[in-house]
Design brief:
It is built from 2 helices and no strands. By secondary structure, it is an all-alpha fold.
Amino acid sequence: MKNKGILKFFAGLVVGIGIGLASNSIGIGIAVGIALGAAFSQGKIA
C-alpha cells in the first residue's frame, strides 16, 4: 500500500514537470507536480 502511494506521488510529479516543460517554466511545473503528487498519494484525486 505504501509503495502505491509513492508511485502515485512520482506520477503526479512527472505530470507536473511535463506541465512545466510545456509552459516553459520548470519551477512552476515542479511545484504543481509536488502538489499533484501529494494529492494522488493521499488518495484525494483518483
